[in-house]
Amino acid sequence: MFTIEHDFDATVVTLVDDPAPYRQEDVTINAFEDCVTVEQLDARSGEVQKVTLSIAMVRDLAAALDLPEGVYRLQRD
After folding, report:
1. Does the residue 24 lie in any domain?
2. Could you tell me the CA-to-CA distances from 75 to 20, 22, 36, 61, 67 in Å, in that order?
3. In a domain, 36, yes or no
4. Which domain holds residue 10?
5. Which of 1, 68, 71, 76 has its CA 20 to 30 A from that of 47?
6. Is the pLDDT of residue 8 over 80?
7. What tens digit of pLDDT does each residue of 18-56 get?
8. Rounded Cα distance, 25 and 35, in Å
């Protein structure tokens, strides 16, 4: 399950792990103009862990989801 919200400066997607024996904490993805952040609560420490990706990194990730194993470099416009 997931939700999508449009805030003033970002689009926020929250991924909810459907009920499972070992359910993971929700993941929140914030898409800003210049970067994307991925956040998840670390249940052991009680702190939110955050990863920041540049827009180029997000493009590479999107392309990687459809490619076989290997090393690639995308052509930039």
Report:
1. yes
2. 40, 40, 21, 14, 15
3. yes
4. 2-64
5. 1
6. yes
7. 877 788 899 999 999 999 999 999 989 999 999 999 999
8. 22
- How far apart CA 43 and CA 75 sit, in angstroms, is 40
Per the structure, how many domains does the chain have?
1
Instruction: Establish if 7 belongs to a structural domain.
Output: yes
Identify which of 32, 77, 35 has the alpha carbon closest to the alpha carbon of residue 55.
35
Look-up: residue for tokens 């070992």? 22
Place of tokens 């180029």: 56
Task: At 54, list the tokens.
Answer: 């540049």
Q: Is residue 76 part of a domain?
A: no
Cα angle vertex 32, ends 5, 11, to 5°? Answer: 10
In the chain, alpha helices (H): 55-64
Structure tokens at 28: 């929140």
- Locate all alpha helices (DSSP H) within 7-54, ordered by sequence: none
